[in-house]
Input
Amino acid sequence: GSGPIPVFGGGTVRPRWEIDIAPEVGGKIVAVSPNLQSGGHVSAGEVLVRIDPADYENRVQQADADVAAQRVAVLQAEQETYIARAEYEQFRARERRRGNGAAPPSPLVLREPQLRAARASLARAEAQLRDAELALARTAITSPFDGRVRAEIADVGRFVAPGQSLGQIYAWDAVEVVVPMSDGDAALIPDLWSLQAGDDDRSIPAAVTIDYGGRRLMWEGYVDRAETALDEQSRTIAVVVRVPDPSTRGRAIEGGSETGVAPPLLVGQFAQVTIDGLELAEYFVLPRRALRLGNDVWTIGPDGRVRIVAAEVLQATDERIYVVGDFTDGQPVIVGGIALATNGMEVRLAEAVTSVEAGSR
Output
């Protein structure tokens, strides 16, 4: 066969984003969204929890009053500065008529430091008003994205402190499956290291499957990226497969075609992943039992004699291997019956014949 070599793996479904719901201000909870419960759906911008805003509204009023007072102080300081400058100009004119020179005025005479201090007080009061308004806005905790609720502990009447966790929500527009792979398997994925996280490059398709209720369900995804650090214990590379819109029910590929009771792709579930690897002009699929020590395969020629072929294994499953080598389609391979073979050895075939299979999936 020809085309992409399948790269197999598996991993746990995880959310693309997951955050804690935590207040930035303290107080008593006065309202909780009915959607904020384990398994619930929340929308971007939806108010999840509301903290009693009374204290924060009072602080806004106090800060607003302070701003108004400081604006009056600035107007008063500006007028005093204007009067001081006018008085100095009158004084300098009188001294000129008398033939005397007038010394340059000091900033204090013109009341310039007082004006700067008044303006600084106004800026501080305006900043305090913005802080009070920001604190008031933070009494409403909103969802930053469309998502699902993993857990919650928010109850009306409960007092909370800033930073206290009230639950977790995760994004529901896409999920990820982190697939640990050997470097040999990762090398079969084309342009893996040129992928950029989140750029929505879907050029490397992947099929994500789970077992549910005696059926196998599939979702279409793609390789999003590879993490750039090896796992220190397993020495594997983490390849991240993204599945858009996991709320879509999986398509049954084994065990029946009914999808009415099929679930969405659940976070935390183990999933099998098949990635379209490098495309080859030709490859062969053999039974796993056909592979001998040293990656040799014992084949049988038309004359009934053994021919030992060296195989380069590209991919392997529990039942099959994907190889390249000096094979032909339909060529018999030995999977049992003899313990030792040499080139040219004559063998007698049993009725059941296992042969090299075309590279279809």
Notes: Residues 54-97 form the longest helix (44 residues).
